[in-house]
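Q: Make up one entry.
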Amino acid sequence: MGRYNQVDLAYEFLSQKEKSGESFTITELAVATGWKQKTCGTYPSKRWHQYVHKDGSHFLTSGIQFLSKEEFRSVHSQKLQQVSDQSTKGMLLHKAREFALLAVSTYNNPYTEFKTYGYIVNIIIAYTALFHAIFEKQGVGYFHLKDNGDPILIDGEEKAWELMECCNRYWEGVEKPEKYNLKFLIGLRNKIEHRSLPAIDMAVAGECQAALSNFENLVVSEFGDEHALCTNLAIAMQLTRVSEQAQLDAMKQLQKENYKVVRHYMETYKTDLEDSIVESQQYRIRALLVPKLGNHAKSSDLTVEFINVNKLTEEERKNYEQGIAFIKGIENPYKLKPSKVMGLVKEKIPGFNMPLHTKCWKYFSARPQDDKVDFKGDYAAFVEGFDGYLYTNKWVIFLITELKKADVIAKVKKAI
């Protein structure tokens, strides 16, 4: 009998049960594969635990049918292989994966209030362990040394490089978006360590997701597909919309005094970075969640797909851009506070100030003079939560265009 004969029989048995929506017993598995019942009893909770779960006295599968036979063989054997690697490299790699999964678990837990801080702490530990495992593999010393070459000891243990030092050594002389993503998260952790700031979650979700994606790519590139996190992870459940009220509440929280230090860090960190880095998906992931329509109710294709824009044809890219334009078109356009409008217009019209802005919205009838909670116009709308009027980018463009005309700005200034 070949090495994988019984494993392949298990794969066919489990796949068929999943496709038909049927549960199974250990006895049925033993009959189908030829394994002893005692042997079969250990596999669901150990080797196959991410795909098989117990339902009373029976078992159900989820995801087996999306694995190839070769992938199932790898899943069946990889757990024992990983556990048996007791080398320093193996233990560091195991630690890295465990803390990465813990970071995701913390972030995706709906009962966790301080998601970002919990995620960053764990992902930093994960990355640090991963880099140490890489240096172990490469035979590179990753400990701090005294001037005489002796190791620096902390509580009797050699002091290893921190994540920032690991980044600088691994990407020495290379300007990588992945490096600046991690440096941003390290700095953010230091800023929020002694502050309770849950409102930043929505503001840095893209950087957090990019860090996880980069971690996965780094693990696979250095140690192979068998160490990828994807066999342990599912796509996090997403709400189909984030309420305007929730966005406004987060914006208002970020403007409070206790957010001042963190807000300043977030606003200034990117100013010294090249546009190519800031716009990279490795620095910050920007994603649009789009419902996918299937041709058939029982279609077995994936419901979520990640698309590499660089691999699209010109026609596909054009359709992609049209899709983005459509989604942007249905976003809430009322986002600009009066002070923001003033700042944007002032860049093009020197001398523009808040009193002149007030004259403008009155002169052009951009909004009512009193508060009308149901008002929504082309240029402004009353937004509950903000309890005032917010403006559109269209209003900014309109003002810049009109106020460049000498006769128009003269009339506006004379208006009451």
About this structure: Confidence is low (pLDDT under 50) at residues 79-84, 237-248, 296-304, 326-330. Residues 338-414 form one domain.
